[in-house]
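hey all, quick one before standup. I had two proteins in the batch that finished overnight and I want to keep them in one place so we stop losing track of which output belongs to which input. First protein below, input sequence then structure tokens straight from the run.
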Amino acid sequence: MSLGDAVSRRLRSTNARERLEAARYLANHAKAGDAPAIREALARETVSWVSGALRRALEKCSPSAGLTTPSPLPSQVDRDDFTEDFAAEVYAEALETTTAQLLHEVEPLVGSIKLAAEGDIPNYEQSLTKTFVDRLDSLLEALSRLRRAASAPKLEEFDLSVFIDDVLAELVLVPPMNIKRAGPDYLVVVGDKTLLRMCILNGLRNAIDATGALADGIDQAPITLAWGTTNKEAWISILDLGIGFGGSLSRAFDIGTTTKEGHLGMGLAITQQSIKSMSGRVVLVPNQRGARFELRWPIARET
């Protein structure tokens, strides 16, 4: 059996949440040699959500053994298994599966509409149709990010300071906008770099938007990006001195919630699901001026 010890142990656990964690990880990372162990786990599994993830894992490592069409979402869960932690895993599994099915059906349609419109509509590049098609493209991209956020994390060790430098290199700042770094130069943490990159970029872009909306004094309102660790957690904090958060904190992380015209309202929802996938949390704190956006997640791998 080629599965890692931690994954194998979770597949055999009496705790449904641990089995679902392992199954969802395998749904994204299974290899051909894992198929026998996955079949064995599937044969003894009694919880429908775990079985569904195991079937996707089997399809991942052995396509001919899987289903040719998306499997339906499980309709019920044993109440004895439905703890709060398990509920969070079920939500993530449902979110990932649903967005995958939606993208599978809708992406080809949008592509066909775009090709047809380019051929049928004069001056397509300047047309209102292109504006709406581009908005559909943006929605599909956001759904793809949401699906990635809900997937099982791929954890690795890395230097957080170097990683943050790489993320900052993706941003284009227009003076006098500036970002101040504040953190140790060498700090090894464990996390999913793809998920963290989405989280940090969303926090920074929100801070940049809030700062750029100031009537004046942008040069006196630097954005501070800080990072560090406690004995249990790694953390990243983004502090801005912009116009502040004007929405409802209780709904800030709901899908579709936004205070910005023309935005889809997916950024904070994707951020929350991304950090939850790493067993972490995100905090948004409005200040008298500006806001603080903070990410926290476990400093080490679970054993």
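OK second protein, same deal, sequence then tokens:
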Amino acid sequence: MRSMKLLIAEDNPLWLKVIQTNVRSWGFIPVTTENGEEALQHLASNDSPRIAVLDWQMPKVDGIEVCRRVKADSSRPYTYVMLLSCRDTKQDVVTGLDAGADEYMTKPADLDLLKRRLTAARRIIEAIPPEGWSRPRVEGYEVKQVLGQGAFATVWEAVQVATQRPVALKVLRVDLATEKVFNRFANEIKVMQEFDHPYLAKIYDSHIDSKLGYYAMDLVNGGTLYQYVRQHQLAPLAVIRLIAHVCLGLQHAHEHGIIHRDVKMSNIMVTESGQPKLVDFGLGKSMFLAPSEDLSGTVDGCVVGTPLFMSPEQARGEIASLDQRTDIYSVGIILYMLLLKQHPHHIAAEDRQQTISEIAHGPVQRPTKIKSTFSKTLERILLKSLHPSVDFRYQTAADLANDLLAFVKSRTQQESSSKTL
């Protein structure tokens, strides 16, 4: 196995030495710095490291900003970024992942786990040649800059030449895609073509064959849900109204027989005017198909989705029986986290399996136990959306939206400018 450069940006000399010594023994070539400014210089150099382990709090430029700049630079190859920080709240993890980090670990780090995650990162990098992320040529589009990157697809800002419409162009790396990835991308196109709703991303054009796979959809300039809420410092009632609109978009998808199965903050984009757009239906599944006909690439018994935002039945791997109520649970988690700044379950951000197990079987914390002044009415809404039994949960996203909007209406006059609930 050939050695691979790995950047370590860490201002604590002890941690820097520990990580440097270990990664060298694991077959990496460590490149070290104690501040974010030098980290950016290393990552912008010729033959730059393709893996970066960044501390959050560093002199000059912090790790979050380094991550954002690296991920936003479309001129450079894909770089795997791990944030390694003492900041260990759920909100810190969300902030790191929203900045574009591929991995978030907390200190003191388990070195055995760190080794395995860096080994996995090496496999990803070796599967993605540096030139693979060069700007694609897609007939009919002027491709501009990268909006987001994954192992098998990149989202680009582009302009549809014929209409001069700005779009987000998701381009599949067909040369690297497995049959499962290919099927998932085709499924995502098929699912999103069914939709026509203001709160769902709309597909304008698509193409997929053995040489090229892409689709053009709404370009949303406002950022992710979490970024929008933080940037605009939304009052609680505005947050609730925004989530109600997400529910209305989900209702439209559900009425077309599609469950999302990966509803999370980073899959909800918000325009500058405050309109949410639910995106990334790659794990979308038809409620009208038998498991044998489903093309979403999953089987019963496998855990599908993002652990922090899973429903209990999803965490238990009951994939074949999932319906619209699994998405409702995910929305409940999002709203709970935005209003209470913590996850409804007692989970450790570091441990994926423990998170899955806790959501599958653990209780939800009552909001009034966290914040005694929290509205009892809103608590009932949240707990109903987060009921462990699907039969006692909201049965439709529209029902949840209606209750949320009714709550907002009842509080608007006296609390529209309040920061508390």
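Flagging for whoever picks this up: Residues 4-127 form a domain with the Rossmann fold fold (CATH 3.40.50.2300). Confidence is low (pLDDT under 50) at residues 288-302.
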